[in-house]
What does this fold into?
Amino acid sequence: MKTRDRILLTSLELFNTEGEPNVTTVDIANELDISPGNLYYHFKGKEDIISALYEHFHEELSEILNAPIAKLLKPDDAWFYLYLVFDEIFKQRYFYRNLTDILQRYPAIDKKFRRLLEQKVRAAQAIAITLVEKGVLELQPHQLDRLCETVTMQVTFWLNYDMLRSKDLPQQLLIHQGVFQVMSMIAPHLTDTYRSFYDDCCALYESLIADLI
It folds into this structure.
C-alpha cells in the first residue's frame, strides 16, 4: 500500500476511535512509524487529510444514493439498500459525530455536504415514489416530502443519538438499528397488502439482537 493511502487509512481509524479533534498529524505519523516530514510530503496538514477522506466518502455515498435500485425496488430490498447507506456512514462516523464543528471549520466540505444532503432527500423520494407506484406505500405528495425529510434527518443524525444514549452496541447491530428505525417511520404508510412486511422487519431485528448481543 502506498504511503499516502496508509496515511488516509490510519487517519480514518484514529479519527473514528479517538475523535478527530483529539488527533494531530504527529499522532498519525507516530502511529505509522514515519516522520512528520514524510507525512507533510503527502499532505500539508490535517485539513488536507480530512478533505481527502471526505472526498472519497462523498463519492462512495453518492454512488449508492444514485444507484438505479429505486427503479427495481421490492419491499425486501429496502432493508438491504438502507444497510448500505448506514454502513457507508458508519465508516466515516468521526465526521457525523462531530458534524457541526467540522463543517464550521471546513467551509469547502460544508458546501459539498449540503449537496450530499440534497442527494439523500432525492434518493429517499425516488424510493418512496417507486414504492407508492407499486402499491407498497400510501402517501399524499405532502406526506411523501415530509417523510423523506424525516428519513434524511434520521440517517444524518443517527450516530449522534446513539452516542448520547451510550449503549455501545456492536457495529452490525448499531447499523441494523438505524435501518430498523427508518423502517419504523415508513411502517404507518404501508398499504394493507404489505402491512405484514413491518412484522417481518420486527422479527428480523429481534433475531439480530439475539444473535449479536
Q: What stands out?
A: The two ends are 35 Å apart (CA to CA). The chain has twelve helices and no strands. The domain at 1-44 is CATH 1.10.10.60 (Arc Repressor Mutant, subunit A).
